[in-house]
Design brief:
about 425 residues, mainly alpha, disordered C terminus, globular, three-stranded antiparallel beta sheet, Cytochrome p450, two-stranded antiparallel sheet, 9 strands
Length: about 425
């Protein structure tokens, strides 16, 4: 999969190079590249939307916006007689869904015509280099009901949610980095350029090494969760802990209760996060706990075991992909996809806003979008350009809080005294300035 992500990221970079210094809607570009990735990964189909305009991108956005309206509406207006013939939004929704259904049906039918049934074990051992897609695996799985609406619905979910959410994460991360202090962007860009050096394509090991970049993406997902609301239904009676509420005896949940979990509010809660509205990727290196929240274990960076800080590391204060049995199964796919795409992008380009960051705006449609697109001007970074000066921006975020340069508390007086001494193993290291 990493190879696929790199191939599509390079196509995006080639397209941006042709548009250097011109105004480009990076939100649309991200939607296009992630659609092409999901097309190949799930369906073995090349939508080619990076190099030509695809109606699917806009159709998916309109479908998600309608889905949000329906989820929050007290009246099922879409069930009104002939609603899809006389209500403007419903007419458009039916047209969009018909187009997506037709595309999906064509892809499924094409795979069915070359079906070769096998057991799961046989499929895992089969050489699938010609078509490694998920659709091929499902179609060839012995006993799979290809006429099932469940299969069709699952594939539709992958087509829509599988690209749109990752595109939103890339969009908002670039937005925040572009409007932040230059030192923040350059810290992350320098890390990417240092790790990759003369390589054009990152591999998995490179992604693991680029922690600052991954934490920037995750910070984007904290501030702009995709989706901003999770909906769950209680299958049994339960009782929730007090948390930050005033209900000391907990909160009783009756069986059948629909629960709306606002990840937007959760991820921006002053009770759970230091400077919650601030984009600060360094926060993921620092432990944080609020003793005023009974029962909450806080965020512990030592509990981060994978590519990103998940719900366990934050004791469910951070739900980038949900949690429990209904957690998104594509979390690793999305994080690696975003990491590869973003690293290839910022290794090769700088970006500046066309106009003001305030012009971007924000609106929701099941996921969080810009109001007016992310209009930016890309500038090609030449391979021989020196790394930008950062002034030790990343480490200073920890030091000014009285922590070590790694974001952890000091354990001895000697550590405090040595915090600003030059590193003997690196003669050109002058030490980290303590000013803000």
């Amino acid at each position: 999969m990493v190879t696929l992500f790199n191939e599509r990221a390079e196509i995006l970079c080639d397209d941006l190079e042709k548009k250097e210094h011109k105004v480009v809607d990076m939100e649309e570009r991200f939607c296009s590249v992630t659609l092409d990735i999901i097309g190949k990964a799930v369906f073995n189909y090349d939508f080619g939307s990076v190099t030509k305009e695809s109606p699917i991108v806009k159709a998916v956005y309109r479908v998600l916006r309608e889905a949000e309206h329906r989820s929050s509406s007290f009246i099922p207006y879409w069930n009104l007689p002939y609603a899809d013939q006389w209500m403007g939004g419903q007419v458009e929704f039916r047209r969009d869904m018909t187009m997506l259904d037709d595309i999906l049906a064509e892809l499924i039918n094409k795979a069915v015509t070359t079906r070769s049934e096998a057991t799961v074990e046989e499929l895992e051992e089969r050489d699938s280099s010609d078509d490694p897609s998920l659709l091929r695996f499902l179609v060839d799985m012995r006993g799979e009901d290809l006429s099932s609406m469940v299969l069709r619905d699952d594939l539709m979910t992958m087509l829509i949610a599988g690209h749109e959410t990752t595109a939103a994460m890339l969009t908002w991360t670039l937005f925040e980095l572009a409007k932040a202090e230059p030192g923040m962007f350059h810290e992350i860009q320098n890390e990417v350029r240092t790790v990759l050096k003369d390589k054009d394509r990152p591999d998995y090991d490179d992604i693991v090494k680029m922690k600052k970049m991954r934490y920037a993406l995750i910070e984007g997902l904290r501030l702009y969760p995709e989706p901003p609301v999770l909906i769950r239904r209680a299958r049994t009676e339960d009782e929730l802990p007090q948390g930050s509420s005033v209900m000391k005896d907990g909160i009783k949940v009756l069986r059948g209760t629909d629960i709306f979990v606002s990840t937007w509010n959760l991820h921006r809660s002053p009770d759970l996060w230091e400077n919650p509205y601030e984009f600060d990727p360094t926060r993921w290196e620092r432990p944080y706990k609020n003793p005023k929240i009974p029962g909450w274990a806080g965020y512990d960076p030592d509990k981060v075991t994978g590519l990103y800080p998940n719900e366990s590391a934050s004791d469910f204060a951070f739900l980038p992909f949900g949690g429990g049995a209904r957690k998104c199964v594509g979390d690793q796919f999305a994080v690696i996809e975003a990491s590869v795409t973003f690293s290839v992008l910022i290794k090769n380009f700088d970006f500046e806003f066309e106009g003001s960051p305030d012009d971007v705006g924000m609106q929701t449609g099941a996921t969080i979008h810009t109001m007016n697109g992310l209009k930016m001007r890309p500038r090609k970074v030449q391979p021989d350009e020196p790394l930008a000066e950062t002034g030790g921006w990343w480490e200073r975020q920890h030091l000014k809080r009285g922590l070590s340069a790694s974001g952890r508390p000091y354990h001895s007086k000697q550590e405090v005294e040595n915090q600003n001494r030059p590193n003997k193993q690196t003669p050109d290291d002058p030490g980290i300035p303590m000013s803000n």
